Amino acid sequence: MKTVLITAFEPFENETVNPSWEAVRQLDQHIIAGAKVVAKQLPCVFGQSLDTLCSAIENLQPELVIAVGQAGGRVDITLERIGINVDDARIADNHGNQPVDMPVVTGGPAAYFSTLPIKAMVEAIRQAGIPASVSQTAGTFVCNHVMYGLLHHLQQNGNRTRGGFIHIPYLPEQAARHAGTASLSAETVIAALETAIAVALRTEEDSRISGGTTH
């Protein structure tokens, strides 16, 4: 049976929960489109997060790797197009590290594009009645660190596994403490992730539809 590795982060920046893990952990051991989903929590720590992720990839040899993270302030499910080779932390990670203008991988390419069919995934999530869009930046914190590091690992190891990153908004209980911010329930996020996984498993070539922005 095929395996899908889906990861999420522990809480960070004074939050008591991370919506990514609250959703992802509930998918562990589920069967979606004939594949077994394995959920793994990553530390919100530069370096250590990639060590944990790469170890899981080597152990599981998954068909897909989808990393999920919190993006407080975003209004929908956002599928990331690109990870860039820079760590530039606005805040410290959970071990107090705060790299500024440092490469994720010394000597690595400037960027990697997601190898998931992100536009087909966005389209299917929207058809399920859940707001979603393509995002052009995964930021420069641990989420981007993981996205870039994931894609670099797959490329360097000649791995046919496809991978990418999805950002999700706050949970309602988090948004209640951040006036004016959007939220999605864990149940809604789970439904979106189930749809995303199913589409990624059955779609080899992405849809050729607009996913760009003007700014």
UniProtKB/TrEMBL annotation:
Molecular function in Gene Ontology: pyroglutamyl-peptidase activity
One BP annotation, GO: proteolysis
Highest taxon of source: Bacteria
GO cellular component: cytosol
Keywords: Cytoplasm, Hydrolase, Protease, Thiol protease
Signal sequence residues: none
HAMAP family: Pyrrolid_peptidase
Function (record text): Removes 5-oxoproline from various penultimate amino acid residues except L-proline.
Family: Belongs to the peptidase C15 family.
Subunit: Homotetramer.
Protein name: Pyrrolidone-carboxylate peptidase
